[in-house]
Amino acid sequence: MKAWQLENFGLNNLKQIEIDKPKINKNQILVKVNAVSLNYRDTAIVEGIYTPDLLQFPFIPISDASGEVVEIGSNVTKFKKGDRVTSHMFTTWLEGKPKGDEPLNALGATVNGGLSEYMVLNENATVFSPENYTDIQASTLPVAAFVVWFSLVEYGNIKAGDRVLVQGTGGVSIFAIQIASALGAEVITTSSSDEKLEKAKELGASKVINYKAHPDWEKEVQKLTNGKGVEHIVEVVGGSSIAKSIEALAFQGNIYVIGFLENMEAEVNLFSLLAKQARIQGINVGHHRAFEDFNKALDQINIDPVIDTVYSFDQAKEAYEHQMKGAFGKIVIDFNK
Amino acid sequence: MKAWQLENFGLNNLKQIEIDKPKINKNQILVKVNAVSLNYRDTAIVEGIYTPDLLQFPFIPISDASGEVVEIGSNVTKFKKGDRVTSHMFTTWLEGKPKGDEPLNALGATVNGGLSEYMVLNENATVFSPENYTDIQASTLPVAAFVVWFSLVEYGNIKAGDRVLVQGTGGVSIFAIQIASALGAEVITTSSSDEKLEKAKELGASKVINYKAHPDWEKEVQKLTNGKGVEHIVEVVGGSSIAKSIEALAFQGNIYVIGFLENMEAEVNLFSLLAKQARIQGINVGHHRAFEDFNKALDQINIDPVIDTVYSFDQAKEAYEHQMKGAFGKIVIDFNK
Amino acid sequence: MKAWQLENFGLNNLKQIEIDKPKINKNQILVKVNAVSLNYRDTAIVEGIYTPDLLQFPFIPISDASGEVVEIGSNVTKFKKGDRVTSHMFTTWLEGKPKGDEPLNALGATVNGGLSEYMVLNENATVFSPENYTDIQASTLPVAAFVVWFSLVEYGNIKAGDRVLVQGTGGVSIFAIQIASALGAEVITTSSSDEKLEKAKELGASKVINYKAHPDWEKEVQKLTNGKGVEHIVEVVGGSSIAKSIEALAFQGNIYVIGFLENMEAEVNLFSLLAKQARIQGINVGHHRAFEDFNKALDQINIDPVIDTVYSFDQAKEAYEHQMKGAFGKIVIDFNK
Amino acid sequence: MKAWQLENFGLNNLKQIEIDKPKINKNQILVKVNAVSLNYRDTAIVEGIYTPDLLQFPFIPISDASGEVVEIGSNVTKFKKGDRVTSHMFTTWLEGKPKGDEPLNALGATVNGGLSEYMVLNENATVFSPENYTDIQASTLPVAAFVVWFSLVEYGNIKAGDRVLVQGTGGVSIFAIQIASALGAEVITTSSSDEKLEKAKELGASKVINYKAHPDWEKEVQKLTNGKGVEHIVEVVGGSSIAKSIEALAFQGNIYVIGFLENMEAEVNLFSLLAKQARIQGINVGHHRAFEDFNKALDQINIDPVIDTVYSFDQAKEAYEHQMKGAFGKIVIDFNK
Description:
Chains A, B, C, D: This is NAD(P)-dependent alcohol dehydrogenase. 4 copies of one chain form a homotetramer. Chain A is α/β, with parallel strands linked by helices. The first copy, chain A, has 2 domains: about 1-140 and about 305-335, Quinone Oxidoreductase, Chain A, domain 1; about 145-285, 3-Layer(aba) Sandwich (Rossmann fold), CATH 3.40.50. The first copy, chain A, is about 25% helix and about 30% strand. Chain A has helices spanning about 40-45, 135-140, 140-155, 170-180, 195-205, 215-225, 240-250, 270-275, 290-295, 315-325, and strands at about 1-5, 15-20, 30-35, 65-70, 85, 120, 125-130, 165, 185-190, 205-210, 230-235, 250-260, 265-270, 280-285, 305-310, 330-335. In chain A, α10 (about 315-325) links the parallel β15 and β16. Chains in contact: A-B, A-C, A-D, B-C, B-D, C-D.
């Protein structure tokens, strides 16, 4: 089969090769991959700035993949040939806390990912793709969309009517606007671009703040909420912005620190934190049961993933390059293009 | 002011009178009532089959009322004159558990209700009416709609993608279809009428079961859910139907026993209950904080209350009679008609 | 190895045999059993009144076993040879809900149990025995003690200071007294025997009610709690007693219906249920993660399992007969006796 | 009556005076104060470093007071004359979130506190003193002890068997050792003094770390927990210590930032936070319902408050001075001394 392998750090070490189709064990399934999507994490792995010590070259990168089951192990009861499935990144995190003595194993990092014609998945690390989604759409979910669901639903116990602040319009933030508004929340979005804020409104944001016009955006948030603040903040900036986020919160509000932030060193004024009785919650994707819940929910709520550009399998490097320079929505590789 | 007073049990003892406008204390507001809606509870009070021992004649009946603030007590900070507000039935149940030593005080029963031109409400037992609702619409919420929210959100912690079974198309059940589907749940509705099931679909039900065609409707529920069952049942039948409800549940599912049921004596097979690890939860409306949450949510999610007939203030007895014989949707009294 | 096999229903079909030591797969461990304890469930299985349709003869009965790891599968990382371990009854219920499409597999029923010199356990269906417990003590935990923890902690979210009603002094109830009081609850116990009530006090009960002297024990509970009622009831009676239990509850209290009750048909007055906003929760043991939590907790809190009689391996039938006629505390079989 | 009033910032502006006994309104009680205890907060108020803008001179300081009810308002049903009661600091925070539009009102700051012979309390801001406590003991609870309960129980949902790290042996930390171990947790305490660590063990700590001997105490925590880390940290240091706290946590562990810390500016590495999926929770005492729960719990669990020195009413300034220079345990003023 055809596959892209990362042989060392650096995009020039991503090589297309021909290798044998992988074999599955009794608890695994073999999936014919139809589409994968990229995340910042994937580019960080290639560049050696994400868990470099855990990686063993060569390996097949990219965690987010959708396709069709073509073979099942003898113990597998959940899936059958022909089922449309999507990968779950943390292959051994089923529910609750991961098993105490095991590290989290991750597709496209410590375990081979989806950038190959066929891919091995554990029965317990796979979900059914949402019924009305194409594989291209389903491939956008496992990291960027699911982390929003995991934050708001599993940690945040979000209720319709809650207020959610979304920073910017990156891949996670676009999904945050869509998911939070589909769950009945009132969404406030910040950006430096009025054009992007217009798009944010089309995607479900009720209120928007151009932080160039309002550098004190946290005060603007308080103003837009009649001094009540927001219950949830999907934090993707970090650094000194955390202090502003605390000011924008409602009493007992939640800041979800999600994945890679622009600035991973935050200065937090603990007095503000305790006066607000605020919570800062670190989040790194989520567990399999919640991803199953999310995919089941997508059969009921309407989320139309925003896709910037679709590349072909042979254009994998162009896809990475596009991801690195930024996009409005997801970068996808369509294996049938 | 004009008011209807109940002087003794029986609808013939409901009398329209002229009395002085009531006075408020420091923590209360005076509301000019624009609309009230009726519930089975209101007719049961008139007929003396609901908490008759707690009632002291005469009193003004009906718990659900919407209108405009015309006067505020000196301690009141939450409301100002002109605010559009709706009543909360349990006037002393603010949050969590009611205060241990206090009975629950209820509008239109132990405390004067809304069937008068002006009405006294505690600041802590009043909510802002949803912004986009008329007073007629808002008056339908405090009992029939809110009890569904309280069940599914406060007790059931419902998530988008959950499955909800709604029995029949009475007042509570119609709201259950609308609220559950607006929260992203998959709704299954039962009825003996195909016509009503069609309406249920229009209101948001994904799947329907005519229990005349399928007396074993619990098996039909399992079939429609691929053998998984439903996470939530809004139980309005009771009696031997509870046993069927348990069979229709998913593992660890919830049955919410809501208000007056057709049959208040249930025979429960405890073996089925424990094999399913099921929960039966008694529910009697809810507390003020959750009603505030619900009204806030209604600014974000679209619920268009189904109203069967609107009567004028002078037609109050006709409204009661209509409520007693049954309706599809709510019976409302519009004070400005 | 020596083993007891059940060849058909009836204690006379329990036969001691010699068979080969079982083999383990990659994810399993082999345990040298040192002690097993009996539950009502074990006698019900022998008598064919518990899940008879799921059983396939012959099989080795009894779910609760403690011993020492003597062999581990190649994938096993959690345990090593020499570790002291205890079995977890539901071998495929790891956490949250069991996997949707799998039935619950249970040791000593659909899977071979512990009444043999060696026993195969899944790595994920085994826990470390509490450090300070003998194997005899640890073998009493998996059903009778754990179901109390699962009820009060996982479902009931018990807090120190809560009030717990325990009915009688059977195996589960004795553990309920000990566990609830160790968790800081105030325990009220009922019995028809003053002598047993004295023992209940020694085990941690704060207050006791002889229900022969007080047939209206639910009123006595209200009196002993200043009219507040109890937050939790460990229900082991069922039938018409459920109605009394509801009366004994605090507002929003919980009744845990645990395992086999004296009377599995309950008549529930739903009006009482909803006026109290009470919950009836069916419970059937629990999942592996919670059993791990419980064993970890036993290293910190002092629970000294009450053991009525210890039999030798060859006396297995006498142990069953004792269990069938009732005991104060657990019946254990010590393989080294 | 005799009272101490703060007339301006600075301890020299704390003056003993004679004033009229205060009057109560319908929802209040008058309490004859028997004992008050001091917290760091009280000294910070005197020194003008805690909410100085909200204060209006003169006022009676100190939030934590216990005594006896001598008069009740006409609406008061919960208390009667002669009841032994303790104050709750946030007088308008009853449960859940404080009312949206109200600031938190605090005894001894925006509302007169307990340093006077008689004190006015709202019925809803008072709890019954634990039955077996003297007033001296009960007066130690409202801030330093309760904040630990609120953190571990309300936010942390602590279970027996959880691991708790307590930093140092200040007033809050001593209570944290006692409360966490009484709730069945395994407690690890750090200190620079072996002598204090010995006392910590006597109070319930299972394991101790001298951070002078082990400057990398976070690694020592991991070692003492077999690499699992602790589920809860009662954080009283702040600053760069937060980074170490994150390293000491278990996966999905909780850091409670409680009240005044040594260093209120924290530098948090967000990558560590998200890899651990850790939570940092700001906490500032708690609400009335939880304080009632805590006092009820103290009737069941044994916590013997550690009291450093008891002063007389006339020695109030000496008490403040002692509190300012530090103590092992609480500083109390006994009005009957």
